[in-house]
Amino acid sequence: MDKLDFKNSAKNLGINLSNKMLDQFEHYYNKLIKYNQKVNLTAITEKEDVYIKHFLDSIVTAKLIKKNATLCDIGCGAGFPSLPLKIVRPDLYIIMVDSLNKRIIFLNELVSELGLSDVESIHARAEDFAKTHRESFDYAVARAVAGLNTLSEYCLPFVKVGGQFLAYKAHNLTDELNESKKAIKILGGEFDSIYKVVLPQTEIERNIVIINKRNITPKAYPRDKNKAKIQPL
User: Fold this and answer.
1) Distance CA 214, CA 195 (A)
2) Helix H segments across 36-66?
3) Is the pLDDT score of 226 beyond 90?
4) Domains and CATH numbers, the chain
5) In the prediction, which pLDDT does 175 show?
6) Is the pLDDT of residue 119 over 90?
7) Cβ(140)–Cβ(167) under 8 Å?
């Protein structure tokens, strides 16, 4: 995908990319592919696939996030979705959290090379990071492959009352939503809506589950020792 195609695709999502942003995404792609040869960051490596399935997919929430918001990306991996969001929304203050330090080293290098400010990469487990950053962010995001009940336990504790958790999910969500109602309520959340979008130049449907934070999350969550995954609420 060349820069013009990417710019037009982003425009279809309501996002106007400057030449500086286009250059930053190009640098991101080159760095990702080169670094991926020594550290497993992504199985998606073809340029068009990276631009569509990582970059475009990440920025679909850009219009859902208020100005100058604080955002936490739990299990950020190679920086998706938070770093593409930071590129198109430089007003955001973002913290990326991941349990694998090799990914954090990559992100620290990339953030420096892209010249981005107000973005931090933190090596930590969600359970530990929550001890010092509970109810600290306007938004939490997650694009990890896990059930919504598990993702909610990892992410909702970080969201301020009045904020939102934005969960990136595929289609066919009915059963998953039903299975997550109990967890969302226990964690102080309330289902708001699903923002649906088809990624430009594809038939890939992305669903953003929007969960509002209504009450403070009980201090028992997120549970330690991977219980959110092993024994979902």
Assistant:
1) 19
2) 47-49, 57-59
3) no
4) 3-230 (3.40.50.150)
5) 87
6) yes
7) no
Residue 43's φ and ψ, nearest 5 degrees, are -90, -10
* d(C-alpha 41, C-alpha 210), whole Å: 27
The encoded tokens of residue 77 equal: 């991996």
CB 81 within 8 A of CB 59: yes
Could you report the per-residue pLDDT of 79-113, keeping only the tens digit for each?
999 999 999 999 999 999 999 999 999 999 999 99
Closest Cα partner for 74 from 192, 149, 6, 166? 166
- Give the C-alpha distances (Å, rounded to integers) separating 156 from 53, 61, 137, 141: 25, 17, 10, 9
Environment class of residue 22 by beta-carbon count within 10 Å: exposed (0-12), middle (13-18) or buried (19+)?
middle
- pLDDT higher than threshold 80 for residue 170: yes
Long-range contacts of 222-226 (CB under 8 A, 24+ apart): 222/126, 222/127, 222/130, 222/153, 222/154, 222/157, 223/127, 223/153, 224/127
10-25 per-position pLDDT tens digit: 999 999 999 999 999 9
Taking the CB of residue 174, how many other CB atoms lie within 10 A of it?
8
On whether the CB atoms of residues 197 and 13 are closer than 8 A, the answer is yes
